[in-house]
Each structure stands twice: as structure tokens, then as C-alpha cells.
Write a structure and sequence with these properties.
The protein is mainly alpha-helical. The protein folds into 4 domains: about 130 residues, no CATH class; about 130 residues; about 250 residues, no CATH class; about 100 residues, no CATH class. The protein has a two-stranded antiparallel ribbon. The two termini are about 60 Å apart.
């Protein structure tokens, strides 16, 4: 091993250790507004995770941060020019890896790069959110707020009959909520009977604060007016704090969300049937698989076709950027399809299968896909892009000298390839960027196909969640996306031959195959997740609403089976939606309740919705559930 190689290896290892130590400690910093969801303990973030999830999340964050480090290290000393423009002085190329690590952790002078801080914060927020922090605690609080409560049998002989009677009142009464707080305080006290006192020991300071609030309010409750707004708010805040305290102890002990909900039932909460997975949990894996497929595909293609022309490090970097582009454009297409469909339902303009509804969804998803392709081109050929911009500037402003254009390129951190004598070897003409933009336009087909096919799959009976249905969707989506990607690649190749001859038609079937694989993954997992989260919503308010719809439909139809068949079948009077989905939208609720009761005559589309006074739902809807399975912010 040469001395230079040894120095580079030592610097790489030191940089890696620096990155790991920094990430291990930084993970514990909240990526969200703390509010009152953090307990008063030395390591508060730990108690927002389920029992075994904290270590997994921490290692996932460390691994992801190390991945970013490796991504910056891969180009090697070539990045020195760009860093020199932001104030970094020249250094030995062998020290590149260590310099990258010191910049990422902010220990190098003049290395306060805002975009690195943004990347780190975003990454930490994603990892926290992936493991339901703080959403898990907020979801638990939402479940408890919406749940009915029945004191566990035989728990407290000391509880007065008045408290027992008050618990029978509806949740909206002050006396019921105060009785609930009384029972929970007794249940959770150190001397009370709880799930396990050890679960709550770290939060002793928080419980003392809750007890003090309870004792202060106890002086005001006797003879209180149920309409006393200020007192109602104080009791609600007390219950919110109790619910937060319960969520810490339960999640500290529970290994899964299902275990947590079972513990809540032991405390006396009557919970609706809830799904145990967010849509994010299902959408994220296929998007990551899409990234993996794309990275492997382009890495293999580069090594098979261009091994003698492209260095391995450049191939890896190109593959990573292409993977990010593919996951971004297909992820955006999925997001747009779900949210634009929900918006149209909320605006009462959605019609299942209507071209008028699909066209704007396809157009937006296609435009975003095209934009991602353009951005990928800029990232992959940044020096050429900046030279093209400089040439365009010189073309549009004739007085701009050649020296000024060259200075503009250099200031951007990417100089043209220069020989030892200092003369320019390669010069990109002004039409490079416009040509690449034109060549990206055919990829509108890819985003449009994913969004339209996914929107189509969301129609029909949502109980189609079996493997056979998922495989059928996978085949259809795979073929559709594979064909659209092949067509897009074919058009791009034709344009390339016209504008800038390079590449070849043999790429068309290969790229089409990659598109087929990506489409198959998306088609198998995403529609199935949407349907599953519609049948068993994870959002407690949505689950409660669906449960009451089924009860009301059963009263009108005589059996649970008939009620479920009606609730999960497309209804022409609801513009092709199922009642189970339509009831989640405030604008359509009046129609759903009339149909559930067997009443004829649905209001005309776009007519004002006056609500349904006869509805048994005592819930302020406020805004619709964004789309099947997605959890709104608590």
C-alpha cells in the first residue's frame, strides 16, 4: 500500500467515525415542535417511540447519514473546486474524506453550508416520522379523545356512585369528562392499579404536575355549570395531559401499535377497529424498491457498455442520481394522484373513470415527472449545463465578453475541462440545455401513466386486498408503465439523433423493462394499501365514522353482511364512490346518511351541503380525510 493510499484510508476511517459519532448524538434532537408531547426526562425523545423502535430508528438515521457521507466522498477531490468557491482553502487530495466529514458536522472553519443543514434536518425528520414520532403519540391522544370509556369492572371500590353514574353520560358533558379524569388519576397513581407502574416511573415529574392540576380543578367542580366555557377548557387540557402521559407509558412498554391499543383497552377505553399501518408505511417500500431497481439497472448498463469510458465512481454517482430521480418522479406521481383525486371528491366534481377528472391529474403528474428529468440532467451534467447557460447569456447579451462568460461558469463551481496549458478542451454550445429540456418532454407519459392507473385502481370494492388482486394490479401497472416508458425513451432517442447524435435504439427495450419492474412494484403495493386503509382506517376519527355508518346501514338493511356489502360497493348516486369512502368527506355526508337510511333523492352535484341534522355523528368534521389511508395531522 502506497503512502498516499494509506493516508487516504486513515482519513476515510477518521471521517467515518466522526460522522457516526455526530449522527448518534444528533438523532436525539427533536425535528418537530416539542409542545407538550415531550416528557420531563433526560432523554425525552426515547419515550415517543414504541419499545423496540428507538434503536432501529437511531441506527437507520446513522446509516442514512453515513450514506450521504459516502455519496460526497465518492467523487473524490474533484469537488475541491466547488468547495473553494464557498471559502474552503486548498487541501491535500488524500484528506478529502476527512474534510467532507468535518464539513458535514460543522467543525471546519467557514463550513457553515445551509444546504447541508437542510439535508440533515430533513433526513432526521423523515426517520422520526417513519417510526411514528411524534405522530404515534398524537395518534394515541386522538384515539383516546374519540374513544368511549367504561371503567374496568372491579377496579375501584372507593369510586363513588356519582362518578360511576357520570361515566354513563355522553362524552360531551363536563361531568363525564371529569369523572373520566378522576378514574384515570386513580388508575395511574403510584398506589393505584395500572398496567405496570414500572412503565410510568420515568414520568414521575409529569404525573405530579397532572395531580396538581387535578387537585386545583377539584375545588371548582362541585356545583359547576356544565356550560362554563373556561372550566370546560381547563378539564379538556387536563385530559389531554393525562392522555399524553398514558401514551408515553404505553408506548414505552408496547412492541407494536396493536399491543399499545390492547393496553389502552385494559385501561377501560372502548376503541374502534383501527388499521395498524399508515399509507406511508406501504408507499415508502415500493418507492425505495424503485430507487434500488433504477440504481442497479444504470450501474449494470454503465459497466457493460461504458466501462472503458466512465470511471466506476462516476458510474456509482450516476446510478445514485438516477435512483433519486426515479423514486422522486414516481413518488410525486403517486402523491399527486391520491391528493388531486381527494380534492376533486371534496369539490364534488369527481366522477369515477371520467376523462375530465383524470386529465388534470395526468397533466400535473406528467409535468412534475418532466421537471424531475430536467433536474436530473442538470445534476448529471452540471458543468455542461452551466457552460450552456453562460453561452446563452453571451448570446442574449452581445456585450458580454468571453472572459465574463468563463468567469460566470467558474463562479458556479464547475470549470470546463482544461488542459495543462490552460486551454479549453471541451466547449458546450448554447443549445445543450434547451435540447435536453426538449428531450425530457416525452417523460410526461411516465408520470401521467402512473397517476391515471393508480386513480383507476382506487375505484371499485376496497375489500379487494388479496394477493390475487394485488398481482393483477401489478401486471396491469407494470405493462402500462413499461410501454409508456419505452415510448418516452423511443421519442427521446429520435430527438437525440436529430439534435445530438448519441446513444442508440437498443436502450428502448432495456429502459422499458426497467419501467415494467418499477410499475409492477408500485401496482402491487400502493393500491392494496389504499384499499386496506379504507376498510380499516388508521385514523381514529375516520374509523369511528365508518363504524357508525355500518351501524346505521345495518339498522336499515337488517344484517351486518348486507350493511357491509352496501358500504363497500360503488354507488352511482355517489358518483361511483363507495359510501365507506364518501362518508369521510363533509360535502358528501348528507347524501351518505340518506342512502344509509334507504331514503331516495340525493342532492344534485355542486349543490350546497346543509348537513344532516339527523346524523348520529357527534363530530366536528372541519375538513375531509385527505385520501384513503392517509393520516391527517392531529
Amino acid at each position: 500500500m502506497s503512502p498516499d493510499t494509506l493516508v487516504y484510508f486513515v482519513c476515510f476511517v477518521l471521517g467515518l467515525l466522526t460522522i457516526v459519532a455526530f449522527a448518534w448524538q444528533r438523532f436525539n434532537e427533536p425535528s418537530f415542535k416539542a409542545g407538550d408531547t415531550l416528557p420531563h426526562v433526560e432523554d425525552p425523545l426515547r419515550y415517543l417511540f414504541l419499545r423496540d423502535a428507538y434503536k432501529k430508528a437511531r441506527w437507520a438515521y446513522v446509516a442514512a447519514f453515513v450514506g450521504i457521507y459516502l455519496l460526497f466522498v465518492t467523487p473524490g477531490p474533484k469537488m475541491a473546486t466547488a468547495l473553494h468557491e464557498v471559502g474552503l482553502k486548498e487541501f491535500s487530495p488524500q484528506a478529502w474524506a476527512l474534510v467532507v466529514a468535518l464539513i458535514m458536522v460543522g467543525l471546519l472553519p467557514n463550513s457553515n453550508l445551509k444546504f447541508l443543514d437542510m439535508i440533515e434536518t430533513w433526513l432526521r425528520r423523515v426517520i422520526h416520522g417513519w417510526f411514528l414520532v411524534p405522530d404515534g403519540v398524537q395518534r394515541t391522544i386522538g384515539i383516546l379523545k374519540n374513544a368511549d370509556y367504561k371503567m374496568p369492572d372491579g377496579q375501584f371500590d372507593s369510586v363513588s356512585q356519582q362518578v360511576r353514574d357520570d361515566l354513563q353520560l355522553p362524552n360531551r358533558y363536563l361531568r363525564h369528562r371529569w369523572a373520566r379524569a378522576t378514574v384515570l388519576i386513580e388508575l395511574l397513581s403510584p398506589m393505584g392499579i395500572s398496567l405496570s407502574n414500572a412503565n410510568f416511573e420515568p414520568f414521575q415529574e409529569d404525573f405530579e404536575d397532572i395531580s396538581a392540576r387535578y387537585k386545583a380543578l377539584a375545588q371548582e367542580i362541585p356545583g359547576a355549570d356544565d356550560k362554563d366555557r373556561e372550566l370546560n377548557q381547563s378539564v379538556n387540557k387536563l385530559l389531554h395531559r393525562i392522555y399524553t402521559y398514558i401514551s408515553w407509558g404505553v408506548r414505552y412498554q408496547a412492541a407494536s401499535q396493536s399491543d399499545a391499543e390492547q393496553m389502552l383497552k385494559q385501561l377501560g377505553f372502548v376503541l374502534p377497529e383501527l388499521g395498524d399501518r399508515r399509507l406511508f408505511d406501504i408507499v415508502a417500500p415500493p418507492i425505495l424498491l424503485v430507487a434500488l431497481i433504477t440504481a442497479v439497472f444504470w450501474l449494470v448498463v454503465d459497466r457493460m457498455l461504458n466501462a472503458s469510458e466512465i470511471e466506476f465512481s462516476d458510474s456509482v454517482l450516476n446510478a445514485v442520481i438516477s435512483a433519486i430521480a426515479a423514486s422522486s418522479m414516481y413518488g410525486c406521481a403517486v402523491f399527486i394522484a391520491l391528493n388531486k383525486r381527494a380534492d376533486q371528491i371534496n369539490d364534488d366534481v369527481w366522477r369515477q373513470g371520467s376523462p375530465a377528472g383524470l386529465a388534470p391529474i395526468a397533466a400535473k403528474a406528467g409535468a412534475v415527472t418532466c421537471l424531475v428529468i430536467i433536474m436530473t440532467t442538470v445534476m448529471l451534467r452540471l458543468p455542461d449545463t452551466l457552460q450552456s447557460l453562460a453561452a446563452l447569456a453571451q448570446l442574449l447579451v452581445p456585450n458580454l465578453s468571453d472572459g465574463t462568460a468563463a468567469a460566470a461558469v467558474s463562479a458556479a463551481g464547475t470549470a470546463a475541462a482544461v488542459s495543462n496549458a490552460g486551454t479549453v478542451v471541451t466547449v458546450v454550445s448554447w443549445d445543450f440545455l434547451p435540447t435536453r429540456v426538449a428531450m425530457a418532454l416525452p417523460w410526461i407519459l411516465a408520470g401521467a401513466t402512473v397517476s391515471v392507473m393508480l386513480t383507476y385502481f382506487l375505484g371499485g370494492d376496497p375489500r379487494r386486498t388479496g394477493k390475487t388482486d394485488a398481482l393483477r394490479d401489478s401486471v396491469v401497472m407494470g405493462i402500462a408503465l413499461g410501454l409508456s416508458v419505452a415510448v418516452a425513451q423511443g421519442i427521446q432517442t429520435a430527438l437525440a439523433e436529430h439534435f445530438d447524435p448519441q446513444g442508440g435504439w437498443f436502450y428502448v427495450p432495456i429502459v422499458g423493462l426497467a419501467g415494467l419492474l418499477c410499475g409492477a412494484v408500485i401496482g402491487y403495493m400502493v393500491p392494496r394499501a389504499c384499499r386496506d386503509n379504507l376498510v380499516t382506517p388508521i385514523d381514529p376519527a375516520a374509523a369511528r365514522l365508518l363504524g357508525k355508518l355500518l351501524v346505521r346501514a345495518q339498522n336499515g338493511r337488517g344484517s351486518e353482511q348486507a350493511a357491509r356489502e352496501w358500504a363497500f360497493s360503488p354507488n352511482s348516486e355517489l358518483r361511483g364512490l363507495t359510501p365507506a369512502e364518501a362518508v369521510q368527506y363533509e360535502r358528501l355526508q348528507a347524501d351518505v346518511w340518506r342512502l344509509a337510511d334507504g331514503a331516495a333523492g340525493v342532492r344534485k352535484p355542486n349543490a350546497p351541503n346543509g348537513g344532516d341534522p339527523a346524523s348520529p355523528i357527534s363530530r366536528d368534521v372541519g375538513s375531509p380525510i385527505p385520501n384513503p389511508g392517509m393520516v391527517p395531522a392531529e
